[in-house]
Amino acid sequence: MKGRVAYNNLLSEGYYRLRLILPVEIKAVPGQFVMVKVSESGDPFLPRPFSIAFASENRLDVIYKVKGKGTGILARLETGDEVIVTGPLGNGFSFPSSADTKVIMVAGGVGIPPLYFLLKSLIKKKISRKRIYLFYGAKNKDSLLLTDELEALGINLFLSTDDGSYGSKGLITDFYLDRVKEIEPPAVVYTVGPNVMMSRVVEISRNLRYPVEVSLETHMACGIGVCLGCTVKPKEQYFTRLGYLKVCKDGPVFPGEYFF
Ligand SMILES: Cc1cc2nc3c(=O)[nH]c(=O)nc-3n(C[C@H](O)[C@H](O)[C@H](O)COP(=O)(O)OP(=O)(O)OC[C@H]3O[C@@H](n4cnc5c(N)ncnc54)[C@H](O)[C@@H]3O)c2cc1C
Ligand code: FES
Fold it and tell me: CB of 229 closer than 6 A to ligand 2?
């Protein structure tokens, strides 16, 4: 379907928030993604996957970092321009099963968009903000996105940057390790970011017996389970049972223990 650009705002150097207006209502679960075909000219030929950062009625937000050709073209879109959007695709996060469960999120860099959508959805479902914890770290102030909005939400928020230019200085996983012991069970953990960060989050959470959901990123061509371009191999004990998994169709959200 065609999405019309409502705005394409620069958040900080190299990061944008794109709002598209779709012809129909979009019913999306946090963690799902869309494929965006950035150019009608056929270059680049393949659409690009982006997590849904927010969706309501016929509005769809994507928050992206300019990396190469496709996102470079996206960054030049102006209000009123059109792109082809496919989705929502894939499986999203499962919502906590009971109202007293603490919700812990750990985001790294441009891993924040799907967790931002999850946050907004939990708050809409009237989950108490006191039960929600977000640990969010990035390289520096420019890469730490949506800070004003996150700070205004009234959740338990821990921000860090590697260089100390915003929030605490250090790795977000170190702050997570320090603080998670103070969070009383039951709790569930959602994490999106670099593999090395998600791996550490799974390791720390495993010791506390908190279930973790991770969201994987791979290159994608079709986004619908046909091309096998996004195939990943889970750990041996899961591979025996599940075989290879497609990030676009079986994920991108998976139980953390499948891979880490
Ligand atoms: C399920 C999913 C959700 C995503 N959500 C977001 C999001 O919310 N915001 C966001 O900014 N990005 C997101 N991405 C990554 C995004 O799709 C890529 O950054 C984008 O496709 C790059 O396109 P490009 O044409 O600009 O770069 P290209 O010119 O295609 O590549 C530029 C560089 O980026 C690398 N690259 C491209 N795609 C990926 C990838 N998927 N993983 C790792 N490296 C890659 C290439 O190897 C190359 O080095 C997501 C990816 C997936 C699979
Ligand atoms: S991207 Fe084609 S099978 Fe997943």
Answer: yes
